[in-house]
Write a structure and sequence with these properties.
By secondary structure, the chain is of the alpha+beta class. The protein is built from 4 helices and 7 strands. A 5-stranded mixed beta sheet has the order 1-6-7-2-3. Strands 4-5 form a two-stranded antiparallel ribbon. A hairpin with a 5-residue loop joins strand 2 and strand 3.
Length: about 140
């Protein structure tokens, strides 16, 4: 009769080991703090007209895309930011001209855009991705 060895599942690690193996990307607050911005200030939620005005006045913006929890998923330079704005953000902007909108949400992706105090010579915009559920009709 052979002796069976107990299973050693790979998920049997401590939380700190798992976090070390898969660290979370930094938040905007942490990234700006590391760049020496003090105090870190999120200025306001931007509507479509606000971002268009920034682009018209300044000619360029930096976009940092974040997930729902505020972790940075992409840091886009000036040229990539303009393409990302036109291709991804503009059609899916959730805060649209001062009101929340549910248009163009067939894929259930939307963005809320914030302006941050920028350490750069151009504005810094956070594009926070949110998942939007279409409202279901009430059943009585």
């Amino acid at each position: 009769m052979t002796k069976k060895r107990p299973l050693q599942p790979s998920f049997n690690r401590s939380v700190s080991e798992a976090q070390a193996a898969h660290p979370q990307p930094p938040s905007i607050e942490a990234a700006l703090g590391a760049l020496g911005v003090s105090p870190v200030v999120r200025r306001k939620v931007l509507a479509l007209a606000d971002v268009s005005d920034l682009l018209r006045q300044r000619g360029a913006i930096h976009i940092w895309a974040t997930d729902y929890f505020g972790h940075i998923t992409q840091q886009l330079d000036q040229s990539a930011s303009l393409d990302f704005w036109n291709r991804e953000l503009k059609p899916r902007l959730y805060f649209y001209d001062g009101e929340y909108s549910e248009t163009s949400l067939a894929d259930h992706r939307a963005y809320v855009v914030h302006e941050w105090q920028s350490p750069f010579d151009i504005p810094l915009i956070e594009a926070k991705r949110v998942e939007v559920q279409q409202p279901r009709p009430l059943v009585s």
